[in-house]
Amino acid sequence: MEIETIISQNPWWRDKRWDEEDRHLKQLKKYPLVYSRPNIIPDKNGVSILYGPRQVGKTTWVKLQIRERLKKHKAEGILYLNAETLRDRFELFDFLKTANSINKLEFCYIDEITAIPDWEVSIKALVDGGFFDGKQAILTGSSSINLLKKAERLPGRLAEGRNKYRFYPLSFREVAELYDIRVNSPKEALANLSILNSILYKYFIHGGFIRAINAIETNKRLNEDLFSVYSAWIDGELAKAKKSPELATYLMDGIANSLTNDISWSALSKHASHPTVANYGETLKDMFVINYLEKAKRALSGNPRNKKVYFSDPFIYWLSLFRGRKLNSVAITDLNSETMGKLAEMAIFSNLAQYLDLMQEGNDFDVRRYAHFEKSTNGKEIDFIVRIGEKTYSLESKYGILVKEREGVIYITKDSFGKNKVPLPVFLLDPQESLKFIQGLP
Fold first, then answer.
1. Which of 350, 336, 342 is nearest to 259 (CA)?
2. CA-to-CA distance for 144 and 209, rounded, in angstroms?
3. Nearest 5°: phi and psi at 351?
4. What is the pLDDT of residue 139?
5. Superfamily of domain 3-166
6. 213 exposed, middle or buried (CB, 10 Å; 0-12, 13-18, 19+)?
7. Average pLDDT, the chain
8. What is the C-alpha to C-alpha distance for residues 342 and 338, in angstroms, rounded to an integer?
9. Taking a C-beta distance cutoff of 8 angstroms, is the pair 262, 306 a contact?
10. In this structure, are residues 189 and 183 in contact, taking their beta carbons and an 8 Å threshold?
11. What mean pLDDT do residues 71-94 have?
């Protein structure tokens, strides 16, 4: 491994003003709205894993972490490696060993580790050889199945306690904070409902992807060039998994058409067999493109027939329409009541999943352990039966007109409020506290 190759990826070793030329940090300067998430991983020695969809800001987060580290630690002790620049696990091993022989490392950031086949073999050898002793190391990746399956081959070699962290698109609460709206209680959120609803309409378009957020802020629309960037991310990940982009597009189109309805994998696309569609569905789930809930009575039966499939973020809904050649751009003015009703339920699901994940603080998370939907023989449905803390709630998304109320069901509404009703923005800011608040009303 040539030393110059290592130094080129770690410009702060020789240039204190490196961040002025860093591609990711220069891009941030162009954005009117920036979010950093500084405390997503606690300070502790050992190897930790951070994974999430591409283009969500993981590399930028790493660069921001490095910039903060440099305020208190020696530049030579901080190492960055873009694993996509290496050929194989042998180069990975050599890169790290050579870098450590040049400088005494304290922090190691290995970005997109899943680009290297059998990366875990080199990491295992380095851990066993004491390389990471006294060091903090963070490995990032975009494919959860690749990372998690290979991490299983590192028993006892990752950091103690929690060592796997998911980097989601920004939640609605984080988006509201981008727009300088910070509330400390559901009561305070109700007092700001009008402005929160205006942010919610933007969120229905840009979701939690920072580039899309800033596109709406500066251009008022999401255009073809932006969609093309994210569409290329999906195609690239599919290529790595040896999957057809066309078939994935058909499946995403089926999900967009059936959004909020329970449906089987085979019914989502007529272009492939049930096993193939199911396999593609799991791949898209692994890529953080979609997620799904199962029906209560079938949730533990192994492979329930029908599911409620959601996109993991509102922006990906519009991306699916772009991929299906149904739009080239979108703005808030393109929202209608039917679409907002679907996006409202999807926002409940995606924000609940992220909220529950952060509550559990476990290494592995599956929202289906905590939530499901129910549908009776007479067709009556409960969108979400979810366990939050010690309580189980029956939640129904009603962003339109609430005609008939059912006992024991809490309705998440556009702006109605009461003992069994909570406005959607208030719920999204803090699901548990908002439910406690309305149930405590006189």
1. 342
2. 18
3. -75, -35
4. 96
5. P-loop containing nucleotide triphosphate hydrolases (3.40.50.300)
6. buried
7. 92
8. 7
9. yes
10. yes
11. 95
Q: Rounded to the nearest 10 degrees, what angle do helices 245-258 and 224-240 cross at? A: 120
Question: Mean pLDDT throughout 274-287?
Answer: 92
248-264 mean pLDDT: 94
pLDDT of res. 11 = 96
Global pTM exceeds 0.70: yes
As a whole number of angstroms, the distance between CA 210 and CA 222 comes to 12
| Angle, CA 62 vertex, CA 225 and CA 131 arms, to 5° | 140
User: Around 407, how many Cα atoms within 13 Å sit in the side-chain half-sphere?
Assistant: 0
pLDDT band for 270, please (50, 70, 90 cuts): confident
Neighbours of 208 (CB within 10 A): 27
What CA–CA distance (Å, rounded) separates 150 from 256?
A: 32
Span 204-233, pLDDT tens digits: 999 999 999 999 999 999 999 999 999 999
Q: Is the pLDDT of residue 70 over 80?
A: yes
Cα torsion 12, 15, 17, 21 to 10°: value is: -80
350 pLDDT higher than 70: yes
Distance CA 155, CA 92 (A): 20
CA dist 233 and 321 (Å) reads 16
* Whether the predicted pLDDT of 418 surpasses 90: yes
Give the domain ranges of the chain.
3-166, 172-439
Q: Please, are residues 307 and 371 in contact by the beta-carbon 8 Å criterion?
A: no
Q: Among residues 337, 289, 341, 292, which one has the least CA distance to residue 317?
A: 289
One DSSP character per residue, 182-244 reads --SSHHHHHHTHHHHHHHHHHHHHHTT-HHHHHHHHHHSSB-HHHHHHHHHHHHHHHHHTT--
367-388 burial, b for 16+ CB within 10 Å, e for fewer? bbebbbbebeeeeeebbbbbeb
Mean pLDDT across 72-88: 95
Cross-sheet strand order for the sheet of 262-264: 262-264, 306-311, 290-294
CA distances from 399 to 80, 189, 234 (A): 46, 18, 30
Taking the CA atoms of the chain, what radius of gyration do you get in angstroms? Answer: 23
Q: What is the 3-state secondary structure (H, E, C) of 337-359?
A: HHHHHHHHHHHHHHHHHHHHHHH
For tokens 């999957």, the residue is 243
Whether 373 contacts 381, CB under 8 Å? yes
